[in-house]
Amino acid sequence: MTGASNQLISVSPDELKFQFELDKQSFCDLKVSNTTEHNVAFKVKTTSPKKYFVRPNTGVIQPWDSCYIRVTLQAQREFPADMQCKDKFLLQSTIVGSYSDDLPPDTFNKDNGKTVVEECKLKVLYVTPNSTTGNSEDGSKQGSDANSNQMVQRTREERDAAVRQTQQLQQELDMLKRRRNRKNDLGFSLKFALLVGVIGFTVGILFKLLSSPTAE
Question: Tens digit of pLDDT for each residue in 71-128?
């Protein structure tokens, strides 16, 4: 699997390959690695935003760390001409001072002359699920072997995709936890103190009721 790279990040693979079937979604996973000792923010853009769903489309990668980006091709109702796709993706990256999930709006603004933004362009390739090559007298046997190999490869890809999906969900969960903790630390402390007070008061009342003498 080949990849693309610049001074801040490396991207693998270096093109987005989708298995194209009518009325079915297809996805491609990108592994983006931070090759520096700095926090690097990234942003994904495409020439056809209505056709694709990107998650996450922005984020921050810590030094020497990596993350997965899943690009999903929405279900299409017709085949493109000659199965050729002119869509393109652009992955921008820049160094940020601190690790934060909330990026300022001007993070990737190059007009101010202060921000250095690197860009990585990715092409899109469509493939058909039944695409096979080679002709011979044993074509039927080769076709059967090819189909078997395709099934094994598809199973491996689905397994790997499930692992990457789990990693993505864990990344999003960690991000939500960090956001919630930043916003709700004070509120949580007050609620916790109030809850402890109510529990203490209730226990005190129960203790008094249990300790008071019963009438014979």
Answer: 999 999 999 888 899 999 999 999 998 877 788 888 998 887 778 899 999 999 999 8
pTM of the model: 0.61
Q: Residue holding tokens 């990737």?
A: 108
